[in-house]
Amino acid sequence: MEDTPEFDDAPSKSQRKRDMDALQDIGEELTQLNEQQLASVDLPENLRDAVLAARAMKRNEARRRQMQYVGKLMRQVDPAPIRAKIDGWLSVSAEHTARLHRIERWRERLLADPAALAEFIAAHPAADSQQLRTLIRNTEQERERGKPPKNFRALFQMIRDLTTAQNSVDASEARKYEA
Which of 24, 40, 55, 178 maximizes the CB count within 10 A of its CB? Predict the structure, then answer.
């Protein structure tokens, strides 16, 4: 006989606590979703009702208790599909944000550095250089006169359209070589 106690394969108390906190975190993320996103997640009715109730709560202690309840209800469902759906939305959002930041950096470079225009046109051959120059000049005049940023926005939209068109061309070229 051995003197050491046999350990079963059950997780430790600390691991169970971490797992429950992770489920509660998923529940918290569910409360942050918009109506369409929440409707597209397959949830039991009692969990959906608890998430909706938690959204409405503004007081910290009541919300904390409600989120614990949401975490308890989350133990009864498989969190993997919910986590995958939330992660999908977050990655799309992160990609979109990164794309907007790249467009914004181009716009700032075009306004700050005259040499950036040639670089942009080289990177985006479909760009109308005359229209870009006009938008850049008009944007600078808007700033000097303190006028509303009409051309500033138009420049952003033009850059967005050109980069989107270039990305779709690059993607179709890549698919052509993959086939």
Answer: 24
